Model the fold of this input.
Amino acid sequence: MFEKVQAILARQLRIDADKITPQSDIKRDLGADSVDILQLLMKVEDMYGIVIPDEALAKFGTVQDVVSYLEKQEAKL
Done:
């Protein structure tokens, strides 16, 4: 799951995927802005056929936060 999120972020932010770790802060470390985060979530929602509620979105700080959320959603399916 991490690798999928990593690949999406690397493409979207035009950065080397090797610079993205689970502990990377999406805004501070990777330089993403709110539009980048929204685009990431739209891609993830499309890939997994889920809707990420605003409450969950507000809790995403690191790449691992996104990965953990997706893993929980996948386990529910």
Summary: The domain at 2-76 is CATH 1.10.1200.10 (Non-ribosomal Peptide Synthetase Peptidyl Carrier Protein; Chain A). The chain has a mean pLDDT of 91. The helical segments are 2-13, 34-48, 54-57, 63-76. The longest helix spans residues 34-48.
